[in-house]
Amino acid sequence: MRLTSKGRYAVRAILDLTFNSNGRPVRLQEISERQRISLHYLEQLFRRLRKGSVVKSVRGPGGGYVLSRSMDEISVKDVLLSVGENINPARDLVGTGDIKSDTVEFVLTKTYFENLGLIMQEYLTTTSVGDLIRKARGTQELPKAASSMLDGFVPQPGIGSNVSKDRDLS
User: Fold this and answer.
1) What is the C-alpha separation between 39 and 44, in angstroms, rounded?
2) What are 55-98's pLDDT values in tens digits?
3) pTM of the model
4) Which CATH number does 5-150 carry?
């Protein structure tokens, strides 16, 4: 699964909306300024998020966007699917043309990535926006699915990430 900017920005924007709402609608301009995401791009994302029933708009003075459900009822998978992200790594294997689909190697590779896709979908489904917000506020450990998958994992520079220790992750 290759998470595009669209997916990353959508998750960041939803977390920003949730973290900063304090019971009131949040304007896209505010999210744009805090997250340094183009307002025009956020408008496109939020149209999709609204169609995907992740957010709803509030019109009028003091209007903006609010979550359509509680933060614990919205999964990261909901957010990613709403903006059209491919969360199934095996989907890209079918019909790529770089290997014949009737070979043992193709079948083994496809099966492996289908299983990986199931694990990823389970993790994305069981991780709610609320889980991430509580984690950011320091009131909860990682979701159980993540904790068990990451037991003993120590991030290595250059493996799976190009993030340095000094870099702001927000």
Assistant:
1) 9
2) 999 999 999 999 999 999 999 999 999 999 987 766 665 555 55
3) 0.73
4) 1.10.10.10
